[in-house]
Structures are given as C-alpha cells and as structure tokens.
C-alpha cells in the first residue's frame, strides 16, 4: 500500500475526512459510494464502489455480442475505468481510466455520435489512441453508473442509425440489469 503521510483523526461520530488531494487523484466525488475492507494486518481499506463492476462478466458477454453484430470494437466503462472490452486486445484497455471528456458526457447524461456535424473526436480512454463512434450513459435507479460505446474502426466511419440505436438500447438494458 502507498503511504501518503497524511494523518486524520476520527470524530465523535466515527467519521474521517478523506483529504482533498486524495479525493481529486482518485476521482472521489461527494456522494460516491465506497467499499470498506479490513485485512489480516489490521489495515482498513477504502475502495471506490462500482455497481456496474459487479456486472463485468455479463457486460463482457454483452459487449462481445454487440461487437459481432456491429463489427466495431465495444467498450463498457463504470464512471472511472474500463470494465469490459470486445473487438480489441483486453490488455490494451481494461482498467484504463476514462478521460475527462467522457466523464463530462456521463455527468451531463449526454449521448454522443460522431457524424459529419461533429467536428471534435471524442477520445474516451486515457492513453489509447482510439476514438468514440457512439456513446451512451448507463443510468440505473436515476444515477449514472457508467457508459457503453462503440469505438471507431480503422476506416474512420461515421455513426449511422444502427450504431446509435444499438448503443442506446444496450445502455438502457445494462441499466435495467443493475436495478434487478
């Protein structure tokens, strides 16, 4: 575990403040759920909870089906990281961080489609030179918990109605799966 040199006291209600620097680095926002673990050495570990992360096996299978149907690479993210990939090497993308541009799309619950009118390409994953063709937020119980997207192939194709509807349907489906 990485030492930070920051010490915080627990208040009379059992609360501890996570320093702003750590919250910013780990992208922990107000209201974000955290999992609390203990280990055999007596350490208490806080980890960001990803509700969609629990569906990663299912999301991977769903991404594989979308890849076979569309022929384009498919990526599923929680609010911070890639959790499922189909059509690209998994090592290239899994656990990579979502870009600030993708986080902003999710935060504002916006869909994205690269068309003739869209001049700016969306790079959804940090450190990966792949651009988004279509993206839709995954909303469960009124909260944004991730996104699903089709990445551009090597030809730089524009988004068509088929891809837009596939991803919109997929995001709604995954959102409902999380509610059950």
UniProtKB/TrEMBL annotation:
PANTHER family: PTHR36432, STAGE V SPORULATION PROTEIN T. This is AbrB family transcriptional regulator (Stage V sporulation protein T). One of its GO terms (molecular function) is DNA binding. Signal peptide: none annotated. GO terms for biological process: sporulation resulting in formation of a cellular spore. SUPFAM superfamilies: AbrB/MazE/MraZ-like. InterPro entries: B_subtilis_Trans_State_Reg, GAF-like_dom_sf, SpoVT, SpoVT-AbrB_dom, SpoVT-AbrB_sf. Keywords: Activator, DNA-binding, Repressor, Sporulation, Transcription, Transcription regulation. Residues 5-51 form the SpoVT-AbrB domain.
